[in-house]
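Chapter review: from sequence to fold.
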Amino acid sequence: MRRRLTKPLLRTLTVLAPAAVALVAWAAWLGWDQRRDVAPDGTTTGPYAAWQVIGLVLTLLPPVYWATARHHAVSAVLGVPAGLAAAAFVDWSDDSSGLFVIGVALVLAGGLAATAAASAVIGVAVRARAGGSRSAA
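The token string follows.
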């Protein structure tokens, strides 16, 4: 009975851990910047700068690597985008037009695609390294 309980709990935790890391990383890199920058010609950019988004992506690579290397790639592919989408929803929900939901959906779709690609590349690299170390031994 106890073994039946621990396996679903472990699977849930392997999804929640990357989601929590993604949520905290969003808050650290993007959550504090809420103002758009206005250029002298009147055009606006932002609120996020490229270095913030790059920092967020680089921060999320270690948890994706960790989960994928431990054969929990599905957990990483589901957890990271879920955390990003939850963070985007909370961050953007004060938009009175309601269009923030489209942005959240795009964050979710982009997060799924990027995390799946990263997990695939990491998985191939980990398997190649494991295969190389076995043949050398």
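Two observations follow directly from the output. Residues 6 and 12 are 10 Å apart (CA to CA). The longest strand covers residues 37-38.
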